[in-house]
Write a structure and sequence with these properties.
Blueprint: H1 13-23, H2 28-35, H3 39-46, H4 53-63, H5 67-71, H6 75-136
Helix pairs in contact: 2-3
Length: about 140
């Protein structure tokens, strides 16, 4: 038997299923098709206080989560986790972008330096040619 986290008041499992389905981007119609039931039956499940374990197991499989994850799902905690995860990802991206920016600047500087060296060599070659042509006269 699955145990729900202890908290203030009992929260029906149906709304948890609905919210997880919505988060996963699964329509009620597609969900019903996967469960091989009617859309009205899905609506009834999503309004239910309890769902039998067999049905819950099928729902968990379709949603790609464990039955315990459904039973213990907390929208607020998930939202906070999502925000925290995004902040970490953004920080990592900033570091990566900064590193890539430095790499790009270094690459561009090296190309510019190489171009300047080639330009100086060409100017030197032109000056040598002029000197040689002036010495022949």
């Amino acid at each position: 038997m699955l145990k729900e986290k202890k908290g203030v008041g009992k929260i029906h499992i149906g709304p948890k299923i609905r919210r997880l389905r919505q988060i996963k981007g699964i329509s009620q119609k597609a969900f019903a098709s996967e469960l091989q039931i009617t859309q009205q039956a899905v609506s009834k499940i999503e309004q239910s206080e309890i769902v039998n374990e067999e049905t819950l197991g099928k729902i968990a499989e379709i949603l790609g989560v464990s039955m315990e994850a459904i039973v213990n799902f907390d929208d607020d905690a998930s939202f906070n986790n999502f925000i925290n995860t995004n902040e970490v990802i953004n920080q990592r991206c900033d570091v990566t972008n900064h590193y890539q920016s430095i790499e790009k600047i270094t690459e561009l500087y090296e190309r510019l330096l190489k171009s300047e060296i080639e330009k100086n060599q060409l100017l030197k070659d032109i000056a040598d040619l002029k000197d040689n042509s002036n010495n022949r006269k």
